Amino acid sequence: MSKRARIATYGSAVGLVLGGTVCAVVVSGVVGQVLTMALIGSGLVILTGLVFLEIGLSEDRDREDRDRSRLSPPSRRRLEPLRPPRLRGHRHER
Question: What's the CA gap between 20 and 14, in Å, rounded?
Fold first, then answer.
């Protein structure tokens, strides 16, 4: 999701919440209550969904980074030869 799309989607959700708040103040009666609940509720549901989308996208990016680092060729560092492990309490007879 691009930065511009992210700003537009979060902005429209916040706009719904603010629009519902304005309706609560300006429009009276049952119509005002219904508009207020519908707009604020929709805005909050959209914001919650966007937060979960962001979490999922960040997990996907982390997974791609892990896979990319796992599949990349090893760095060119000097490898030391393998040595057999030392056993404690084991004495060599000569």
Answer: 10
Q: How large is the average pLDDT for residues 54-82?
A: 79
The pTM of the full predicted model, rounded to 2 decimals, is 0.66
Residue 17 has pLDDT above 70, yes or no: yes
> In the predicted model, is pLDDT for residue 72 greater than 90?
no
Residues with Cβ < 8 Å from 27, sequence gap 6 or more?
35, 36
Domain assignments of the chain as residue spans, ordered by start: 3-69
Residues 25 and 62: their CA atoms lie apart, in Å, by 45
Q: How far is CA 40 from the centre of its chain?
A: 24
φ and ψ of 78, to 5 deg:
-75, 125
